[in-house]
């Protein structure tokens, strides 16, 4: 029995319980992407009609030590959905689907692959409005009371949100147990230039083009919440702007679709804040270090034999490119460097 058939057999009792005894699974297909989790399209016919769902399922590895399990990721999506954030409707957390935890949510129609979002002619209008829409959606996420997300990791008592983010980066790099001088230099710069602290917010943790669904009208929904936590808003405001997430459109700093102005303006208007690119420079450096560490840890899953994968190996190839970007950002001659 192949994997799809085994998963379909494991899901059938839940489908009948959820949608009625006549419900049946008519299709199950592994979707592209997902270096740390599987995503499966799940087609179900019910007495009320056909449903196109998505199942997120563990693969056995994690990009970061602090990554959420499927139970907590599902709980975050439930929280966002109830708050009116554009996310898929959550259906159920399933602790054991053929031996691994999973959850089921509604499928959203649209494009998710970043390289297509930044180039496809039919998405030209979407690219014009996407930065503003993503800024407004992020403001809605950060507007959820952090106390409602108390089950997520966050700063210790008396610890600032930015300092907490830095501590996590240091801990993640320490697990690698190999020297990465450019990353260590970047961490030293962050320690020496800690920004002003703010109360923690619910952070998505991976907010960028490539983790959203986009159609011709723009943003449809926000996906991939496995790195959600309580942290500084600057984390989410900059992660989608690093070079790695411009998909070859290097001059368009926000996700390869536009500069940062429209995104920040929409966020600031919705939240009543006044963030500037200069204020966020520290977090841009931190976001690059975060992604560099992720490429290292993902490649190690392949190199160690834990999970042989060409996709994981290709992520390791990106490490040097991000190190170069970090060194460029640390150079006082960089045009956006805030100075000391």
From TrEMBL:
Matching Gene3D superfamilies: 3.90.1200.10, Phosphorylase Kinase, domain 1 (3.30.200.20)
Q: Which organism is it from?
A: Immundisolibacter cernigliae
Q: Which named protein is this?
A: Aminoglycoside phosphotransferase domain-containing protein
Task: Quote the PANTHER family the UniProt record gives.
Answer: AMINOGLYCOSIDE PHOSPHOTRANSFERASE-RELATED-RELATED (PTHR21310), BLR2944 PROTEIN (PTHR21310:SF57)
Q: Where is the Aminoglycoside phosphotransferase domain?
A: 30-272
List, alphabetically, the Pfam families matched.
APH
């Amino acid at each position: 029995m192949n994997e799809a058939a085994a998963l379909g057999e494991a899901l059938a009792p839940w489908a009948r319980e959820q949608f009625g005894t006549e419900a049946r699974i008519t299709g199950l297909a592994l979707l592209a992407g997902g270096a740390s989790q599987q995503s499966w399209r799940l087609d179900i016919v019910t007495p009320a009609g056909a449903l196109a769902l998505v199942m997120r399922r563990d693969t056995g590895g994690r990009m970061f030590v602090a990554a959420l399990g499927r139970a907590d990721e599902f709980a975050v999506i439930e929280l966002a959905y109830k708050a009116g954030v554009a996310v898929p409707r959550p259906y159920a957390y399933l602790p054991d689907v053929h031996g691994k935890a999973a959850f089921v949510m509604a499928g959203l129609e649209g494009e998710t692959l970043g390289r297509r979002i930044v180039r496809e002619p039919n998405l030209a209008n979407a690219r014009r409005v996407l930065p503003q829409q993503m800024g407004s959606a992020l403001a809605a996420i950060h507007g959820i009371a952090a106390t409602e997300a108390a089950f997520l990791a966050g700063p210790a008592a008396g610890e600032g949100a930015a300092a907490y983010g830095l501590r996590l980066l240091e801990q993640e790099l320490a697990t690698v147990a190999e020297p990465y001088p450019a990353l260590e230099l970047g961490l030293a710069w962050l320690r020496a230039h800690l920004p002003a602290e703010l109360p923690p917010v619910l952070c998505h943790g991976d907010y960028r083009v490539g983790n959203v669904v986009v159609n011709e009208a723009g943003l449809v929904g926000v996906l991939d919440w496995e790195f959600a936590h309580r942290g500084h808003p600057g984390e989410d405001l900059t992660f989608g702007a690093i070079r790695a997430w411009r998909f070859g459109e290097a001059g368009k700093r926000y996700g390869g679709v536009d500069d940062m102005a429209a995104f920040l303006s929409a966020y600031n208007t919705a939240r009543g804040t006044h963030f500037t690119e200069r204020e966020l420079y520290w977090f841009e450096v931190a976001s690059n270090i975060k992604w560099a560490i992720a490429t290292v840890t993902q490649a190690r899953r392949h190199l160690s034999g834990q999970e042989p994968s060409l996709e994981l190996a290709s992520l390791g190839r990106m490490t040097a490119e991000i190190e170069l970007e970090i060194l460029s950002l640390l150079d006082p001659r960089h045009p956006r460097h805030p100075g000391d």
